[in-house]
TrEMBL record:
Organism annotation: Seohaeicola nanhaiensis
Protein name, per record: Nucleoside triphosphate pyrophosphohydrolase
Gene name of this polypeptide: mazG
InterPro entries: MazG-like_dom, NTP-PPase_MazG-like_C, NTP-PPase_MazG-like_N, NTP_PyrPHydrolase_MazG
Highest taxon of source: Bacteria
NTP pyrophosphohydrolase MazG-like domain segment(s): 37-110, 176-234
């Protein structure tokens, strides 16, 4: 029988979690589901857990954040265990590489550089260090290293930032607004025609909208999450008003729900 002392130690910390993961993946006594997984099958869960962390922060659900961070940490532990089984690296290697990276990227904290500079200048320095790191990985192109698997909106912003660092950027938001008008006209011209072309023009418009957010110093992903939350809140307001009338949305029509939407919006603004 294996020694379960660490498994059941409530203060076992990261070593307890690593041991749990090792036991779950044990080919003879582990969990069949965990044993069957690989990097590709776990990756979607990793992405999902990262979004759940962001969601808890967005809602300021601090009582939930600890658990969501734990779920995300477990994803790193899961990937590291699979890597260890293949002889690639283990969790300590992950932690050590991250520590080395943070020390190298913060010479103003852990080295001899002065801390007497703005956060903006530190951001510039950070990007310079990252560019040097990419050069050592034979990533010569300005856009190399921007992960393909990122959410499309986030990747658009990262690609635009990279291009801007080498001078490929509009000088201000006014020029981006002009481009939005141009892309909107091109989309309108394609509507009703080839669906593939409509999708292409729609994508172009979204890409430029992401660029506008960057120029306005707005995170497009955060702005869209906020818009989503507002839509949910207001639509629930419609449902509440309809329920008070003994109705459901499917019993209503667009004109009535649109009027209730305006009422909910007005109540929000006055409250």
């Amino acid at each position: 029988m294996p020694d379960d002392t660490l498994i059941h130690d409530p203060n076992g910390g990261i070593e307890r979690l690593l041991e749990i993961m090792r036991r779950l993946r044990d080919p003879k006594s582990g969990c069949p589901w965990d044993i069957e997984q690989d990097f590709a099958t776990i990756a979607p869960y990793t992405i999902e857990e990262a979004y759940e962390v962001a969601d808890a922060i967005e809602r300021e659900a601090w009582d939930e954040l600890k658990g969501e961070l734990g779920d995300l940490l477990f994803q790193s532990v899961f990937h590291a265990q699979m890597a260890a089984e293949k002889g690639l690296f283990d969790f300590d290697d992950v932690a050590n590489q991250m520590s080395d990276k943070m020390v190298a990227r913060h010479p103003h904290v852990f080295g001899t550089e002065s801390r007497d500079k703005s956060a903006e200048q530190q951001t510039v320095d950070w990007e310079t260090i990252k560019a040097a790191e990419r050069a050592t990985k034979a990533q010569g192109g300005a856009l190399d290293g921007v992960a393909v698997g990122l959410p499309a909106l986030l990747r658009a912003v990262k690609l635009q930032k990279r291009a801007a660092r080498v001078g490929f950027d509009w000088p201000d938001a006014t020029h981006v607004l002009d481009k939005i008008a141009e892309e909107t006209a091109e989309l309108v011209a394609e509507i009703g025609g080839d669906p593939d072309k409509v999708e292409e023009e729609f994508g172009d418009l979204l890409f430029v909208m992401a660029n506008l957010g960057r120029h306005l110093k707005i995170d497009p992903e955060a702005a869209l999450r906020r818009a989503n939350a507002k839509f949910v809140r207001r639509f629930r307001g419609i449902e509440i008003l309809l329920a008070a009338m003994g109705k459901r949305p499917e019993d209503s029509d667009l004109a009535e729900m649109d009027a209730l939407w305006d009422a909910v919006k007005a109540a929000e603004r006055s409250g």
